[in-house]
Amino acid sequence: MKKVLKLLLVLSLLAGAVFAFTACSNDDDNGNGNGGTANNQPADNQPADNQPTVPVDADLTVFLISHSPAPDSTLDDGSFNQGSADGIRRFVDAHGGSFQFLQPHEATNPARIDIFIDAIADGADVLVLPGFHFQQSVYEAQALFPDIYFIVVDTMPSGPPASNLVGVLYAEHESGFLAGYATVREGYTQLGFMGGNPVPAVVAFGMGFIQGAEHAAAQMGLAPGTVSINYMYLGGFGAAPEHTATANGWYAAGTEVIFVAAGAAGNSVAVAAEAGEGRWMIGVDVDQSGLSDRVLTSAMKALENSVYAILVDIANGTFPGGQGVTFNAANDGVALPMANSRFSTFTQSQYDAIFAAIAAGNVVVHGLQTMAGGLDHVQEMAYVVARLNIVDVNDL
Q1: Fewest CB within a 10 Å sphere: which of 249, 259, 304, 383?
Q2: Topology, domain 172-300+366-395
Q3: pLDDT digits (tens, 9 = 90+) for 216-229
Q4: What CA–CA distance (Å, rounded) separates 214 from 222?
Q5: What is the distance between the alpha carbons of residues 223 and 219, in angstroms, rounded to a whole number?
Q6: What residues have CB less than 8 Å from 128, skipping those under 6 apart?
Q7: What is the arithmetic mean of pLDDT over 146-171?
């Protein structure tokens, strides 16, 4: 069956290539087709009419697929795979169906498409694909398998999304804001931010962190310059001894808390945080309190909630295909894990108040789309922050 399906895939690819060649001749004079707007969403921000044919009242067979083989990507990764899996399990427990996990044999787009085929041959109704690594493979697969629902987590496909695909996105700037706000309200004033690379999600975390710290400083009446933030991009997301050395240097110079939005590099900062008294770090994406007893809190994306919500949409026949859906404070898409945070003075009521203010729009957190400078945002933040001393370490 799988061999037959793979043969059909080859034939579909050949047919798709012919169709693409024909479609190109119908583009307008500027080379723009009608496959969606520049931000990969339909012009009217509504899903297309032709929805997948999977019966909405049937038990769903949901496959979670990792972007790479172990050990680079595992089910219990403490990050996107694990959080997405929790959402699938929650749905299956509540509504029936089944959950399976597969990994490609190598970290390439052909291998990812190959594992899509294996899952579909095994009866998949829904493929959940966490991470930006799936951008190209899912773009190719969405048209080849129109009866399959694709949920890509924390990214969008490399081209216009089809009606059987939804991109699950997050308001990282709001999550970062909550972390920065809580940290200053807790009483810390010497902060640090370490991002992996200046990709949009990481930049948004850092931008929000700065704004949250500023908002708390203003509420507390702190004098300008009281709160200081060392800010840098590490140049990658992997654990490395040099990241531990950099963090050790910051801590030794007086930094109290470092927010690390850099994947496995957080493990390296944890080593430095554990090497001395009064050193804290902030986790990212998921609750990383288990990483170290020096994790103060985590700037979370509500992976479980968002994946569960989209699966419920499928079951209800309201799948929001053909677009990206952003999860933010207003729909419980971002959070701090208050039950596992190690705050001494920042209270649940204070958290609830600032969260509600963001959700209601009473506190506005600036995102990338509001920044004239785009990714080079540290200098652009001058109009938002008045009380902080921000040191852009990469420029030193």
Answers
A1: 383
A2: Rossmann fold (3.40.50)
A3: 999 999 998 899 99
A4: 9
A5: 11
A6: 62, 63, 64, 65, 84, 88, 151, 153, 307
A7: 96
What confidence category does residue 77 fall into, taking pLDDT thresholds of 50, 70 and 90?
A: confident
Same fold, 58-170+302-334 and 172-300+366-395: yes
Tokens standing for residue 15: 């047919």
Which candidate, 334, 366, 368, places its Cα nearest to that of 175? 334
- Rounded CA gap, 101 and 67, in Å? 11
pLDDT tens track for 273-316? 999 999 999 999 999 999 999 999 999 999 999 999 999 999 98
Q: Are 273 and 258 within 8 A, CB to CB?
A: yes
Q: How far is CA 50 from the centre of its chain?
A: 28
Q: Residue 216 has what DSSP assignment?
A: H
Residue 361: which region, alpha, beta or left (left: phi > 0; alpha: psi -120 to 50)? left
List helix spans (H) across 33-158.
80-95, 109-121, 135-144
C-alpha span between 114 and 128 (Å, rounded): 15
Domain parsing of the chain, residue ranges? 58-170+302-334, 172-300+366-395
How is residue 212 written in tokens?
A: 């949250």
Is the predicted pLDDT of residue 20 greater than 60, yes or no? Answer: no
Which tokens hold the place of 1? 């069956």
Write out pLDDT tens, residues 316-330: 899 999 999 999 999
DSSP letter at 86 equals H
Give the helix/strand (H/E) hosting 249.
Answer: helix 241-252
Angle at 123 between CA 122 and CA 129, to 5 degrees: 85
